[in-house]
Amino acid sequence: VVMKALLKHDKVYSWFKSLFVRKVDPRKDAHSHLLAKKEDNNLYKIQFHNVKPECLDDYNKLCEDVLPNIHADPEYPCELVGTWNTWYGEQDQAVHLWRYRGGYPALTEVMNKLRKNKEFMAYRDQRGKMLLSRRNQLLLEFSFWNEPVPRPGPSIYELRSYQLRPGTMIEWGNYWARAIELRQQNNEAVGGFFSQIGSLYMVHHLWAYKDLQSREETRNAAWQHEGWDEAVYYTVPLIQHMESRIMIPMKTSPLK
């Protein structure tokens, strides 16, 4: 009798507990496969270099002398998408965005070739003396965003970076796949990316504007479009931390 009572209690407890246990999503594929562009095999690398204030001009000159050579050399399956100095946000900072056509094998090929490139190795040695710190991330581009292509400018660029709560990337993508259609009127959408290596569950949205006033007007105008308020309402709770940088292109940046 006691044993039956215990078994009955365990069954009731298990049923009651199941009401509060979150069900596991039966999805069988990684979010990177579901959200990234499938027609190409592009991998992106974003670099953040914090430069000693007194070295910023020399650092910029060094980058302008060396990075375009790698970009233009057909032996390297990579492209310099854009290179900037942060204007508002972290000061004395450079941001570089590279694209590797061919994914991880292309990245590996470039890294191996650069180790044998005397100009690049000398650049690395000089650069190291000018930096306070540096970090990078490997990124994929969202399938529903524009692919970054060279722009004539002159423009300022805003890099909006979002640290999402783990497990929310698919939900973010679902809302932004609709929201990005509302942000194309002024050709401001440049590219959208999510991290694969480095800080995880990071999203970067890159925008271009004529100036700060144009940015203000364009962002305010988005609220006049039906559906924008809904996108903001449902995506804000997914964010743990967010940051905005206003950036100025370097002289040799393909995104002017």
TrEMBL record:
Gene3D superfamilies: 3.30.70.100. The keyword Mitochondrion applies. GO terms for biological process: mitophagy. It is found in: Mitochondrion matrix. InterPro entries: Dimeric_a/b-barrel, NIPSNAP, NipSnap_domain. Its main location: mitochondrion. This is NIPSNAP domain-containing protein. The gene is NIPSNAP2.
